[in-house]
Amino acid sequence: MGTCCDWHSSILPALQAGPSTPLLPSSEFPKLATDWRAGFFKEIHARFEAGLPAEDIDVTHRRVLDRLLEEKGIDEAAWEEDMRRELVDRWHVQIGWPDALPGLMKLRVKYFMYSVLANGTTRLQLDIAKSSGLPFHALFSSQLVGLTKPDPEIYRKVMELMKVEPDECLMVAAHAYDLRAAKKAGMHTTYIQRTTEDLDEDMVAVRSEVDMFIDGKRGDEHCGIVELANCLGSKTLK
User: What is the 3-state secondary structure (H, E, C) of 102-143?
Assistant: First the structure.
């Protein structure tokens, strides 16, 4: 989510289906979506730092949602159990960025093999791949691999499973923390900037840390992964 899929365009309409109240007017739903996403990242990083095993992403999403609503003074009488459950399930239905599908197809034509490596469950990845229509060669979840990002070992494990060397691999992400960890594992790195991700990161610093920095903020079919596909084969990584 975030690199290939526009989670915000999936989650915001689901939130807008909820009741608008004086404590949580509909004008605040976009911020609620952003805070929900940020809260998820805060939770998984805290668990990693504490040495705790990863938990089901649905459990994390539900706990963060409940906390955010409680902070707004919203109880289960206002936002009922069924509504909250449907909101959590909505993370399994994603929309690809406009450049995602054409970009992946250009990579396929160039005989590149590309896989998903992400925190979360295999069920989540299957649902996202199905709903977005994005054709990946393989899906590696933290649940499946038994490790969690940003542990460098998760990248090494997947490279071992795919029988490739680090200098043969390019980690592509819209999350700087992800690329910093992949770099420690010896992988090349490409950052795709998205409007929904890394809102607190210093992009000047991120540019200096990665091998390629690509604009994915324009929201058209010519940026992001399409630009990446155009670069690969014609541009040498540092």
Answer: HHHHHHHHCCCCCEEEECCCHHHHHHHHHHHCCCCCEEEEHH
How is residue 23 written in tokens? 């404590």
List the structure tokens of 47. Answer: 């668990």
Give the separation between CA 132 and CA 127, rounded to whole angstroms: 8
CATH class of 7-90: mainly alpha
* Residue 84, pLDDT above cutoff 70: yes
Taking 80 as the threshold, does the pLDDT of residue 133 lie above it? yes
Picking from 181, 224, 193, 159, the residue whose alpha carbon sits closest to that of residue 44 is 181
What phi, psi does 151 have (nearest 5°)?
A: -65, 120
Q: Give the span between the Cα atoms of 202 and 234, in whole angstroms.
A: 28
Give the chain's count of helices (H) and strands (E).
11, 5
Give the number of other Cβ atoms within 10 Å of residue 16's Cβ: 12
Strand order in the sheet with 212-215: 170-173, 188-193, 212-215
Neighbours of 84 (CB within 10 A): 17
- The pLDDT score that the predictor gives to residue 234 is 58
CATH architecture of 100-231: 3-Layer(aba) Sandwich (3.40)
End-to-end CA distance of the chain: 27
| Residue spans per domain, the chain | 7-90, 100-231
Give the tokens for residue 222. Answer: 């010519």
Q: What number is the average pLDDT over the span 21-45?
A: 93
Q: Tabulate helix, strand, coil % of the chain (nearest 5).
A: 50, 10, 40
Structure tokens at 195: 């409007």
